[in-house]
Design goal:
It comes from Actinoplanes regularis. By secondary structure, the protein is α/β, with parallel strands linked by helices. The chain has ten helices and five strands.
Length: 220
């Protein structure tokens, strides 16, 4: 059973998501919160599999709430998915940097919403290649200025290659084809790189790849 925490300051939005989730045999809503501070407290109390978290909320906003959940060692394995009305705007980008596993737009189709929750709960590829490419576009127009990521020197040549391909928007299957390996081996390279770089998910792996200089926005 996938245990979900809903955090949104609009009761009507929460009730709509709750109705969708509770209609599924494999999902349940363990709690609801109307602001980020309450959301963090309930995440610590219930340890859900997925936290669906609005970005723009009173008291504590979604970015700070995401950061608190992502950095709490007792909440390891809790996946934050941010909710937005605006697509990949600056707030979503900041939430991904803070540790969110991905995001969902509130006007998404119900079946896509439910699929996104299941993907997040599994901890699999939480960013579709199309979203990864939007992250890349952000770096093209506004390059970051950070130093090398800790653990970069620990990557093997194959792991570095896999990270580079993730950062260019390729899925595990596409990485496997490019590296001439199986999809399982590709996923293993990516997961090991995530562990060494202390990245919670593919979103942070992409960001670290660019911030460390492993990949540059205009590289081919």
């Amino acid at each position: 059973m996938i245990r979900v925490l809903l955090v949104d300051d609009q009761p009507l939005i929460r009730s709509g998501f709750r109705a969708l989730l509770c209609a599924e045999d494999d999902m349940t809503v363990v709690a609801e919160a109307g602001d980020g501070a309450e959301g963090v407290a309930l995440a610590r109390l219930h340890r859900p599999d997925v936290v669906l978290l609005d970005i723009r909320m009173p008291v504590v906003d979604g970015i700070e709430a995401t950061r608190r959940i992502a950095t709490d060692p007792d909440l390891d394995g809790v996946h934050v998915v941010v909710l937005t009305n605006y697509g990949l705007d600056e707030y979503v980008f900041d939430a991904l940097r803070a540790g969110a596993a991905g995001f969902l737009v509130k006007d998404i189709l119900p079946e896509d919403f439910l699929h996104g929750v299941r993907v997040a709960a599994r901890g699999d590829a939480l960013l579709a290649p199309s979203i990864t490419r939007k992250l890349i576009d952000r770096y093209v127009t506004q390059p970051p200025h950070a130093g090398p990521a800790a653990g970069l020197t620990e990557l093997t040549a194959r792991e570095r290659e896999a990270v580079t391909l993730v950062a260019r928007g390729l899925s595990n299957d596409e990485i496997a084809g490019r590296m001439v390996i199986s999809p399982v081996t590709a996923k293993t390279h990516v997961n090991r790189a995530m562990t060494k770089l202390h990245a919670r998910d593919r979103a942070q792996l992409v960001i670290l790849a660019y911030e460390s200089g492993l990949v540059t926005p205009h590289s081919s």
